[in-house]
Amino acid sequence: MLWLLFFLVTAIRADLCQPDAENAFKVRLSIRTALGDKAYAWDTNEEYLFKAMVAFSMRKVPNRETTEISHVLLCNVTQRVSFWFVVTDPSRNHTLPAVEVQSAIRMNRNRINNAFFLNDQTLEFLRIPSTLAPPTDPSVPIWIIIFGVIFCIVLVATMLLILSGIQQHRRKNKGPSEMEDIEDKCENVITIENGIPCDPLDMKGGHINDAFVTEDERLTPL
Amino acid sequence: MPVHTVCVCVPHRRTVCVGVCAPQENEQPGGTALLAAAHPPRRAPSPGAMEKTRPLWATPLQFVFACISYAVGLGNVWRFPYLCQMHGGGSFLVPYVVMLVVEGMPLLYLELAVGQRTRQGSIGAWRAVSPYLSGVGVASVVVSFFLCTYYNVINAWAFWYLFHSFQDPLPWSVCPLNGNRTGYIEECEKASSTQYFWYRKTLNISPSIQESGAVQWEPALCLVLAWLVVYLCILRGTESTGKVVYFTALLPYCVLIIYLVRGLTLHGATNGLVYMFTPKMEQLANPKAWINAATQIFFSLGLGFGSLIAFASYNEPSNNCQKHAIIVSIINSSTSIFASIVTFSIYGFKATFNYESCLNKVILLLTNSFDLEDGFLTANNLEQVKDYLASAYPSKYSEVFPQIKNCSLESELETAVQGTGLAFIVYTEAIKNMKVSQLWSVLYFFMLLLLGIGSMLGNTAAILTPLTDSKVISSYLPKEAISGLVCLANCAIGMLFTMEAGSYWFDIFNDYAATLSLLLIVLVETVAVCYLYGLSRFESDLKAMTGHALNWYWKAMWGGVSPLLIISLFIFYLSDYIITGTLQYQAWDAAQGQLVTKDYPPHALAVIGLLVASSTMCIPLVALGTLITRRLRRGDPAPVA
């Protein structure tokens, strides 16, 4: 009689966990891809840990705080490593609705991943989409800051060049008028002082090399 | 150093001497010498040439660097590697070098010689050759104006990418998430993240050229910055340009060398290099290879825009422009080849990366479908395992089979891209997979900016030199104001390219604004110098100017070969346009995530016609105008050429 009950129970439990059964989820692990040489082998102890993590996630759901490890059933473990699991209620006759399991796993996905040193891509729960990490959007986009800096530098440099150009222009405009004064004075000097005569060629003045300024005594009239 | 003793004056005054009295070697000790407007002269200036001396390059090296930074531009980086790939890799170098020697060097020497001889911008230079020909100069200015308007938009895009390179992760390496954060945006999934960033985030492109959309403020800001930078560099004429060209000519080589070292050490780079350099000799028989080589040399050197004439006009008359022409053309071509080595090592890396990703996807698919052990399937045993699975589980295999892609390294390498697609999509895709991708991205876009701004210096010089040479305009406005107005006008028109359909208009300008017109301009230039002005007359001018006799080779090229070559190119392009019938363009389809071909609407075709006509018609119209004005003034002495 007891043996019959036992077989009945395992049969029912086997029925509950089947590929594509109602409320069953397929899990796929890629341990070697994630860890390379440090990959651990998938054995029954790892399965126990997995059941514990699922039970832990379910216990966080209101009304399901009494979920035990034995309520989580695994089946069809392949070499891949992939398997199916269901979570049963305390009576062990029905499986918990998929929606509850889904939300529980989503809430604790990070903890489950970390327990196995895996991430969302290497520990996949098919039919449970993972929430992707939102992009970190700073309040002011970075590019505007850099743009502002470079724009200000270029603007300031342009202004400086323009202003110095205007100053040079003014100095040049003053320059010829100064030259004219000097030339007039030169002419006056020649006529008044009747000093050293400038060459009667069409020239307004002469350029004096400073090195010879002191030797003006040598400049005799032609 | 003794002063010439003819002129002597009141000794304790410093006065200025004009003409013969100018000191030979030493600097002016101070004071207000008229000659201080230019740089210290190398020999006594001729009397009577003292009104307003033309600004000169401080050293001939500045002139060479200016020509190099103008000629070495974005075309060397994104057009030449594409042509190399299309026409059989190593064997493309044969028509390229032949065209360089036969077409590039002679035409470059011609333009530099004309500019140096006439010492004026393009309009004045051609007026000096023959009064009926100032239309050629006007056409050059018009084409340069179009070029300036659209070329700086590339710099704006380079700035945009540069500013976005300071983020981790790079914004074009990941797709943004969709509304409820369960997946990526659909357009990004269908295309790739780099394409999405280019088409959606940068251009915000519309589905067709008819839907213009609004001006996008982000690219508009970058365009304003780009024009401000160009204005800063050309503000003071050769004084400022001469300093800037040291950077724009030399720094890109530094970046290219760094990239070469990085590129050659990338995984899979050798695949790209082997692919590029294996010559496919049968391509030599393809006339398209020769035509493309001729076109590439022609446009890469920037002939016909008037920039080379403008640069050469600031030279000393005794400058040896023959040597400089040879140097500049050789450096330009070597840079193209060097840049294509870098590009192909990056191509090889990208192709290998994509090939391996494709293989990994197939491996993952098979591993998941058949629950094989993780890590069992590798690239080496993939084929055998596939065969085994096909035989062991035929039904399941046939279910999975349609999803298995055929990964091929050759097909990855064969995706040849040119233009903005290469620079902003393919390269960024390769960069995002490198380690420390932010650094490589910043370096790369900085190099693009240097190349682009170097070319812009030449483009703006082509417009500004004739304007500042003209007495009418330069008497009213100082040089800075003229430059500012030109930059402002170009910036305002350039806002057209920042609209949503702006990229399509950019392609129109890129393909049609300069191509036919330039061929015509350079043809008229060569024919004018050789036959209108007279080759022997030009030869004696050059000899008097530089002191060297003209080699027979140049005479043969100018007189015969180059004009024939240009005529054949011209005929080819015309017939190509006529045969293809309607002109088409590539539009981005957001729903499919790829480019589709569409026909140009009538108003776009009208714009294309206007672009080509407005520059080519200048030549006959101005000639006609000069003829009419001369006829009207019949009786007055004809103006001396």
Automatic annotation (TrEMBL), chain A:
The keyword Cell membrane applies. This is Collectrin, amino acid transport regulator. It is found in: Cell membrane. PANTHER family: COLLECTRIN. Residues 21-222 form the Collectrin-like domain. One of its GO terms (biological process) is calcium-ion regulated exocytosis. GO terms for cellular component: brush border membrane; cytoplasm; extracellular exosome. One of its GO terms (molecular function) is protein homodimerization activity. The lineage of its organism: Eukaryota, Metazoa, Chordata, Craniata, Vertebrata. It is a single-pass type I membrane protein. Keywords: Cell membrane, Glycoprotein, Membrane, Phosphoprotein, Signal, Transmembrane, Transmembrane helix. Signal peptide: none annotated. It comes from Capra hircus (Goat). InterPro entries: Collectrin, Collectrin_dom. The chain crosses the membrane at residues 140-163.
Automatic annotation (TrEMBL), chain B:
It is found in: Membrane. Pfam families: SNF. Keywords: Glycoprotein, Membrane, Metal-binding, Sodium, Symport, Transmembrane, Transmembrane helix, Transport. It is a multi-pass membrane protein. The chain crosses the membrane at residues 56-73, 93-114, 135-163, 214-234, 246-269, 289-314, 326-347, 442-464, 485-506, 512-535, 556-575, 604-624. PROSITE patterns: NA_NEUROTRAN_SYMP_1, NA_NEUROTRAN_SYMP_2, NA_NEUROTRAN_SYMP_3. InterPro entries: Na/ntran_symport (IPR000175), Neutral_aa_SLC6 (IPR002438), SNS_sf (IPR037272). Na(+) binds at A71, V72, N76, S300, N332, L451, S455. GO terms for molecular function: L-proline transmembrane transporter activity; metal ion binding; proline:sodium symporter activity. Belongs to the sodium:neurotransmitter symporter (SNF) (TC 2.A.22) family. This is Transporter. It comes from Capra hircus (Goat). The lineage of its organism: Eukaryota, Metazoa, Chordata, Craniata, Vertebrata.
